[in-house]
């Protein structure tokens, strides 16, 4: 017979009130609770919806609030109203509909409708809500299954003649409309129950409770309207009872139960014995089907026990119980025992004679320590043993202690009388514990008094006969004192003043010396030392010695306590005993020293005393380190600095002085800034834009201002500049991409002093990526450059990080804005990840010269850098900075290529160093030959002249010469030769002159003007002119 189950509130309502409402209807048919409906057949109108119908027509309108019905998804959330989802609910006067608005809906499971009915619960609540369920699945879902098979649980006492047990199976996957239980193919209708667990997985728990020993094959079958069915079965067996059960008393508190296992054994896996004697009752389970005996212990003498035994089954029912009644236990008179003991340090063995005629099955032995030896703890123990008594060894007793021992014998009738008391003394052992609370007493420069408490009683292991006191220094026992057992203090003499000793005390008995208890104690000083500051570089030490101490000589040693700054230390050779002062000279100013005076005593002993002294203060002799200047705006900077080298602080740093002014100007501003020995920082405001300033910092002590630092040069920007986090980024500066954010205080800002153009609210500046692409505005141009967008504000153009469009490309980004003079300004900044932006030199500098024949030839050096922004470019000649006529041009923003040019006028070793804020720098150098110096001409003959100069030529050099008429100025001839490097002179062959006829018949003295040009392959040239006379000609 199929059992139709209504669950939860629906079940309660149906059973109590016998109402037909509410119910679920679909396609004009009434559905049983927990029925199945194909989800694809549910439509959008009232006719093809799943309808939850009630008999309460007056409370189901849309506007009547909490009393209207509701549909719920399997997960417990309520269905939305029309227009809010693919599965919705709709309300009418007497029902609430479930409608599917989209074919894409795939939310199968058990849906339920919670709706009011017309039943009257009481005078205050005019409606009662009920719940009905329906399974909505696609054509491939809703198939029911049973997982885990079936389980059996015993619910009643095993000893009952009619036990009760429960069978359980669990179904999932679809609604459980019908549940059928059978035993041996016969339907069972009583004791069934179904509980709805999970609407998402459609999990139901089905149980059948059976009363009585009813074995058989039980089957649970679950079905729904899919149609689909699932079933699970279990074979329930029952055990056979044991036979020939007996119970026999075998001691004063125990009963032995025996039985014959059933034949056949069947499903028997063990037995359970229950006993009840009034004041004592309980049960015990015994495994093993062949077991046939068990002894119950710890029962109560004089009581009669009822005993039940049943056979147990692994998957099944217990057998019928079998009962037996035991006899009572009767007390009896106990025997008397006589003993004699033997002992060791940790054991006592007793032997004795049992009185004739006594039946003994066990004994109780008890012992305790005798308090007569002065210990308050008795260390009492009691042990019960089974078996005949002849001798017994007590262990765990303590050496050197006296014990009292008694024994009581046992048999089945009860406990006998207490035996005579036997006294036993264990053998002594060395103490196992040390004296407690060892502590120093009176201390002098040459003696220590030590106090202690006695060894604890449990660790004496015998009678304490005395104590041993040791004084130890550097691992060696220096002095030993032995005192009696009643002593609690001892004084040790002949010690060294101001020395740390270990003092230890141990107890002694006849078996030996026990462990020591140690304490650290230092003798008082016999040497007193003081120090005074004599000057900034000296200290005076004075000392005295106690009258009872003999001294042979002294030494003085010292060391600088600031080991990070100084490593100077020294030791003064032996000083006569008559001398009691010494002055240390040549020390550091305002520096603390550790000074030790050592007194040498007889027998090779010494006493040392350490003091500290500080020389007087002076002004610092060096400037602070790590000075950093950060430009904040076009009119303000921030200066920070580190500590002064501690070797040159010369006292406590009380502050700093900051001195700054325009470079080349005469006025300097000096301001006092607070700080300590670690450094400081301060802002400087009110500066002039586009102005070069020098900044210096000096430390201050109580003795004055120290040395100012080398001037640092900083140039304030104009009103167009780039900043990040409130700090100005120098043109061609470096910025880590990860530092650029999406908020106002983390974006890269391009500033201008030009107000917004007419009709506009914001600046019209632009940002450009390394490849020249304009960075887009997300509100207009979308995202032209990956990872970055541009945003304008009054007098600001922001570069904002946009992680949604990828990572920005590394390279040089440029901002183009107009200033207040309508001049277009271009500012550059390098954006790189933490591993990029490192600058490098592209080859060595190149040398170039214009035509050496020009009146003022120009010479240039050019170096090229790539890889990162070129924030700072420095040219040096022979290690001296060159500042005149330098320029830097950005060639390629993608690879950050810059060309750096120097216009030079002198030879030397030139270095081009390019750096940025990575920090990263690169350099390259070139040697340029200087102009030949002190050029001299010496005629060799009528057609040659010798040219000489100071020094060797560094590179091959060309000598060009041309002849110019001194009458007409015409170039008459030209020639050149190349001289190798290292040449110091050359001979030039000149052309012979041709006489010129000026139309006057007379002799002319002809002179030729020669121009000599020396120009090296990589060097500065020189042009020299000289006149060379020729012979007379007659025309």
From TrEMBL:
Residues 1-18 form the signal peptide. It comes from the Eukaryota. SUPFAM superfamilies: Fibronectin type III (SSF49265), Immunoglobulin (SSF48726). Keywords: Receptor, Repeat, Signal. Residues 241-330, 331-429, 434-527, 528-621, 623-719 form the Fibronectin type-III domain. InterPro entries: ECM_Regulatory_Proteins, FN3_dom, FN3_sf, Ig-like_dom, Ig-like_dom_sf, Ig-like_fold. Residues 160-235, 845-929 form the Ig-like domain. This is Receptor-type tyrosine-protein phosphatase delta.
